[in-house]
Specification:
Layout: E1 2-7, E2 25-30, E3 36-40, H1 50-61, E4 65-67, H2 74-80, E5 86-88, H3 95-103
Length: 114
């Protein structure tokens, strides 16, 4: 299972970033091996369109699940909903804690509305 988690740093000890489009990093992690790739979000300081561009970046990496702190804006959501990516919002703590909670079945997607 491949997760994408918004993060405030480039490692598994970083805090989950509450933002999606302007998240500092996207961490893509394999839940079985915990091997990960941290990608600095080139849109974190964008004047506009950060959500759409960040959504496209995530879609290109093809994760199974996206985990983030707060809701995703409507423009980014339009990009993400064209895929099979499961969206989980309202997550806090470290990236490592989010992975563990997901693996234990403690994080569930809701009836997502942007």
């Amino acid at each position: 299972m491949k997760l994408c988690i918004t993060a405030q740093g480039d490692n598994l000890d970083a805090k989950v970033d509450p933002r999606f489009g302007r998240s500092e990093y996207f961490i893509f992690v394999d839940t079985e091996t915990l091997e990960f790739e941290a990608i600095k979000n080139p849109n974190s300081d964008a004047m506009g369109g950060a959500g759409i561009q960040s959504g496209q970046l995530v879609v290109e990496k093809d994760p199974d699940v996206l985990i983030t702190g707060n809701n995703i804006g409507p423009n980014a959501f339009q990009i993400l909903k064209t895929t099979d990516i499961v969206i989980i919002t309202g997550v806090s703590g470290s990236v490592k804690e989010a992975i563990e909670k997901y693996k234990k079945g403690e994080l569930k997607p809701g009836d997502y509305q942007s």
